[in-house]
Design brief:
The protein has 321 residues and is α/β, with parallel strands linked by helices. It has 15 helices and five strands. The chain folds into two domains: 171 residues, Rossmann fold (3-Layer(aba) Sandwich), CATH 3.40.50.300; 140 residues, Zinc Finger, Delta Prime, domain 3 (Up-down Bundle). A five-stranded parallel sheet has the order 2-3-4-1-5, with helices on both faces.
């Protein structure tokens, strides 16, 4: 009975996929993304049909520009298969125009025109909306995300908006302990933070990445505190000078250039701490950073796990009034 039900469910899923011609898949769980992509392809093409009717643009781990490939992609989707009653399937991996960009007024973005990318993505969205439904083709767009590196799909771009309108957006996110760790840490929940910290360390082996990320996120939280309290104004520094000359140009290290969702989260979390607490905590991170990557010349290396947990406990503890 259960096997029959499973077969019916699988058959129903394939039928649902076979009835659609446009899919937008995003997230950081690459295995699940690739598996779902294969389900879509199998729903539209038999194995013997793939050689002549399946094409890919780009790969996981890299990006390509619609500006240079759009003509080829649209021509591929508009081509009729030589085989009767057979559809063509095109997969686009990581079109760079579908990622969140830097804010238009940021230092890093000045002097760069966004018009070519916008015209390409708008032209492609128009093609998908008006022409793809009448073609014997299937389009799969994949956007590989990395939340730690702030690489996220741009949900305001016209292709994402069109996919959302058609219920064609599919998200596969890998739940990482680092996100739960920073949420708990910045909420001053020591026990929960340590639990997620241990989980994170157990998954990365001896990698120094958690220690590096700890310092990086704390720097952003300090910046968020300065921005939220407008400390620069009290020091006689105009806002434009603070933004353009005193903050790093790299969006990974500049609170004002991080994505909106991340910036708002850090600004809210900064209210949990005083600036003195944050600067003191950052100073006490020095020993953890020193031994994040032990050197062969070190006479001895302290227990990083113990040191980090003591630091977390102190960071989360509220100072007596």
């Amino acid at each position: 009975m259960s096997e029959s039900n499973s077969q019916r469910l699988a058959s129903g899923a394939r039928s649902s996929l076979a009835g659609s011609s446009f899919f937008l898949i995003h997230g950081d769980d690459l295995a699940k993304i690739e598996n779902f992509k294969e389900q879509i392809v199998q729903a539209h093409l038999r194995p013997e049909e793939r050689d002549e009717n399946y094409s890919e643009y780009g790969t996981f781990g890299s990006r390509f520009s619609l500006n240079t490939a759009l003509g080829d992609i649209m021509a591929e989707l508009s081509t009729v298969s030589f085989l009767p009653d057979t559809r063509r399937v095109a997969v686009l991996y990581n079109p760079q125009e579908l990622y969140e960009g830097r804010s238009a007024g940021s230092k890093a973005g000045r002097g760069k025109s966004n018009k070519p990318g916008k015209s390409a993505i708008e032209a492609f969205a128009h093609f998908i909306e008006t022409q793809l439904p009448s073609l014997q083709s299937v389009l799969i767009v994949i956007v590989e995300e990395d939340y730690e590196q702030y690489k996220r799909v741009a949900k305001q771009n016209p292709i994402y908006q069109l996919a959302q309108k058609r219920s064609a957006v599919y998200s596969f996110k890998e739940v990482g302990p680092q996100f739960a760790f920073f949420d708990a840490l910045f909420a001053r929940k020591a026990e929960e933070a340590i639990m997620h910290w241990r989980d994170w360390l157990s998954r990365v082996g001896g990698s120094p990445r958690p220690y590096i990320q700890l310092a990086s996120q704390l720097r952003l939280l300090i910046q968020a505190k300065v921005v939220a309290t407008k400390l620069y104004e009290r020091r006689g520094v105009p806002r434009n000078v603070f933004e353009n000359e005193m903050l790093p140009a790299d969006p990974q290290y500049n609170i004002l250039l991080t994505p909106d969702w991340r910036r708002e989260k850090l600004l809210k979390a900064s209210a949990q701490f005083s600036l003195v607490e944050l600067l003191d905590a950052y100073e006490k991170l020095e020993i953890l950073q020193k031994y994040a990557i032990p050197l062969s010349t070190d006479a001895s290396v302290p227990d990083r796990n113990l040191l980090s947990e003591i630091w977390i406990l102190n960071f989360c503890a509220r100072k007596e009034e």
